Amino acid sequence: MTSTAEATAQVGVVGLAVMGRNLARNFANHGYTVAVYNRTTARTDEMMAAHGEEGSFVPSAELADFVASLERPRRIIIMVQAGKGTDATIDSLVELLEEGDIVVDGGNAHYEDTQRREAALRAKGLHFFGVGVSGGEEGALNGPSIMPGGPAEGYKAIGPLLEDISAKYDGTPCCAHIGPDGAGHFVKMVHNGIEYADMEFIAEAYDVLRAAGLSVPEISETFREWNTGDLDSYLIEITSEVLDQTDATTGKALVDVISDAAGQKGTGRWTVQIALELGVPVNTIAESVFARGISGHADLRAAGREHVPGPARSLAGGDRAQLIEGVRQALWTAKVVAYAQGLDLIRTASLQNDWNVDVASVATIWRAGCIIRARLLERIRAEYAADNLPTLLAAPSIVAGIEETNEGARRLIGAAQQAGVPVPGFAAALAYLDQVRADRLPAALIQGQRDFFGAHTYQRVDTEGTFHTEWSGDRSETRLD
Ligand code: 6PG
């Protein structure tokens, strides 16, 4: 169907649920004329009634009119539920687009789906971008962190607009071209993996402080204080807010009336699955995913409460100030380990996919706008900008931080475990530090076991080659190559 619409919009948004609506408003607030479309026209009408006066919008009831209302090269941002909805929207759009037009998926798509879509649209002369948008509804409106992956050629046309609407840190946009095809969605996925870990560590810190006898208001105040130091971050800030909230119905702290079964849409799980495939240890992120899973296993937990023996979960009575400081140190230690693991995963995937992702650039655009935004990220950016680090844990300022926090973190984690307070994230972080710094690991024994039952062979520390011991024979050693 040909359209008579005039091409006046510089950018268009398809999908006007809250995130899409707020992105469209953000573009309009930055002076762009924004074409808007939603499959259900009523939602477009609702958006125009509520926000149409905020800027220059071109609403369309038909997709053909929406496309025709866009200047060339057309820049279209899809903000629909990740999955089949995205493919259906792309299919509807493609037949209406022309060579050089740009399609952006701003949802939390799996990076392999993005790679498939990018190749398919590239074959039709179109530019496809998978773009991580972090910061929730507020971020979409006032400045998200934006992680675009797609062709460098197309970024020349879409990049400046995304950088315009992104959050800024000291005037620098929290948006930069991450790399080709699925690189942007991969980085967003890892962002979410780190987000899960960060949230788990905060939850463990809260749980330990409760077991130590602090009241919810005292814990809220403790997080507020931490938010003025090295732990300064969005998640610490909102934790204090959540803990301050009183339930209107019962008059109790809201946190005490919320069901303790955590949800998850899946990006943290993807992070762990892919890390396993790529052989990158992300045990802190994995423990955060498992912790959410356990919290939802009602039958397992009922059986555990009934049958599993253990101490009475109390940390009250000791040196309260030392305990609180120990929790802060454990929180900081675990946080840097989660970032180290997540950034290692990004670098490994970048090498595997030939994306050439700049880790310092990733830290740069995470400094504001996104859910994991934190003071620590400026330090991480500076360290990676100064040196091509083998791991964040080798960065001088991080080494100094671990030296300062390590002993207190160990003491706190031990005390929590002694008292039966679960700290799987903290413990995983500490185990990772002890594994990477160990001169010898007990994996030598595992190699011996594997050779014993499966003749899987082993290497030696004192000479080249592959060896096997004749365990069922004279136990002599054979060199195989
Ligand atoms: C963001 C968030 C967002 C994510 C929510 C829900 O960066 O703005 O990460 O993309 O969808 O956090 O994620 P879960 O349901 O998996 O916790």
Description:
There is one protein chain. The protein is α/β, with parallel strands linked by helices. The protein is built from 19 helices and eleven strands. The chain has helices at residues 18-29, 41-51, 63-68, 84-94, 111-122, 136-142, 152-165, 183-211, 216-226, 234-244, 267-278, 283-295, 298-307, 320-353, 359-365, 376-386, 396-418, 424-437, 443-454, and strands at 11-14, 34-37, 57-59, 75-78, 102-105, 127-134, 145-149, 168-169, 172-173, 467-469, 477-479. A seven-stranded mixed beta sheet has the order 3-2-1-4-5-6-7, with helices on both faces. Helix 5 links the parallel strand 5 and strand 6 (127-134). The radius of gyration is 26 Å and the shape is globular. The termini are far apart. Bound molecules: 6-phosphogluconic acid (6PG). Residues 108, 134-136, 192, 195, 263-265, 267-268, 370-371 line the site of 6-phosphogluconic acid.
Q: Can you give the helix content as a percent range?
A: 40-55%
Q: Using only CA atoms, what is the Rg? A: 26 Å
Distance between the termini: 70 Å
DSSP strand content: 5-15%
Bound ligand species: 6-phosphogluconic acid
Largest sheet: 7 strands, mixed
Low-confidence stretches: none
Average pLDDT confidence is: 97
**Structural category:** alpha/beta
SSE sequence, one letter per element: EHEHEHEHEHEHEHEEHHHHHHHHHHHHEE
Number of helices: 19
Q: What overall geometry do the principal axes of the alpha carbons give?
A: globular
Biggest sheet: strands side by side, in what order? 3-2-1-4-5-6-7
